[in-house]
What does this fold into?
Amino acid sequence: MLKLAGVKTYYGNIQALKGIDIEISQGEIITLIGANGAGKSTTLMSICGIVPPRSGSITFEGRPIHDMKPNDIVRLGICQVPEGRRIFPFLTVIENLDMGSFLRNDKADVKRDLDYVLTLFPILAERRNQAGGTLSGGEQQMLAISRALMARPRLLLLDEPSLGLAPLVVRQIFAIIRKINQEQKTTIFLVEQNANLALKAAHRGYVMENGRITLADLTVNLLANEAVRKAYLGI
Amino acid sequence: MTLGEIKKSLLAAAWFMFLTFPIMVIKVNTIQKTVEWHWERLLYVAVGGFVFSFLWRYFLRRKQGGRRPAAPVETDEPEAVPAFQRLIHDRRFAMPALVVLGLFVLVFPYLFSMYQVNIMTTALIYVVTGLGLNVVVGVAGLLHLGYAAFYAVGAYTYALLNLHFGVSFWLALPIGAALGSVFAVILGFPVLRLRGDYLAIVTLGFGEIIRLVLENWNDFSYGPSGIANIPRPKFFWFDFSLEQSAVFIYFLMLAMVLLTVFVTNRLKDSRIGRAWIALREDEVACQAMGIDIARTKLSAFVMGSAWAGMAGVVFAAKTTFINPASFTLWESIVILCIVVLGGMGSILGVILGALVLILLPEYLRAFSEYRMLIFGVVLVVMMVFRPGGILSEVRRTYLFKEGLSKDGSLS
It folds into this structure.
């Protein structure tokens, strides 16, 4: 479904991605784990076209997208939940969700999707007329995921959904992520620091170090891998 | 009133005395080479400083105290709306008020002198420019410090086209708007990737460039001496006397204000308007949602500049004389102040802001020496006590009740 081949991305003169290859198939949950500054978020930014790669290719369903504009990439069905949630603080919950469906014209379907995300996260229904900035961190993360779902993506990119959240809330969110994958058949690419949870939720995983992919395997194998256990799971 | 408060105010008064000592107390007579000491003024400064500081603290405390709700109340309303704003949105009150106001503005030119009509027309021109800039600054959140340049584009469009080709006012109006937009695109394409402070500096530079070109390119714009004898607008082939013409321009501006209010209000609720508001809040999130930020920013820029161009045409027709001195940075700042003071994003607020900021200095002519001082004080006090402006924006929000969606109801 999505294929990255030899992607190199730079911030000015600093090379953040030193040629990475990732392949994601339809219906999978793929996780990308790694330490701070490994290039995980940059990978997502490159896929979305917000920080386009300088060389290498990114293809989505056989179509090269590495030189497309971010808005056209969203139109193809790739939607990102950016790191640190980045909800619109002065818009209400409903308006935030409404921004998610910005590119869609099918009003009835949008309404159905709105009902769906509100059943997925009932707390958002309770807070629907509240400004986004007044929500708690966990609720904001739920809002950010819901907002992305409102774009009805076929590939959902999640950037550290566990960032700064209580363990209980994190588990709740991961459960929802799996649910979205099963119910909506949405392919999910999950970037995480919380390697333990991410590897348990995903089917396959990539390990990233200093802008390179160092390991790629089924998560079962990664969880059993000695090096991974030492470096990321602290066992 | 604790003792601490009084102590702090005393300290402030002492500080003021120290600061103003050289300019208030010592007076050097350079001709007679003597120094006069005005000690009694120090006393005025002390008393004034004390009272000012005391009141300042009092109101600040009251403001902070007032914001704290007594008990968290479970309501469905997003935020508590101030009483005055609720009054405006209350139909029972708003409709009669609107009718009275409408009648007043209709009979205004027949009740008051030419002078009053003229300054009111000027204020209305600022209402239109303010509403135009409000789209750029208030709604889309792009700080624009060169707005007067687009105003100048409009004014010079009419003046020059009329001078060389005899183009009429009515034809110049859309051309002015179009040229304003064209210049906005020319400026917008390279600079709109910039944000915040950087954008402000670039727009500031652009504004000055336009003014300097107009000032120095004598063959094109007749330089600092400007263009005189610009014809006033005609109504079909009907020629007005001077007074009739002033009244006519007044009504023309009134119509333009209504049009601007209508268009900007509709725009704010449209898809592009929502994109503007989202853009103001978070650019990266906008990109992630598939909003083309370059095009969205540009559209806000073009939209705002078109109004400036149109207002410029009317300005040229009203004053019948323009020169680059009318389009200085100060002009841009005043329009920006109108938007910020009135309330960013709020249409009614911007209208009030324009009326206050333009009419106040006119009526304060009696105190002409202190005019700018009062102007400055009003701005500072407003921003401290009402940072949201006279009328902060009450956005139209979607209210959802029990699964039933109801669009556009006011909250």
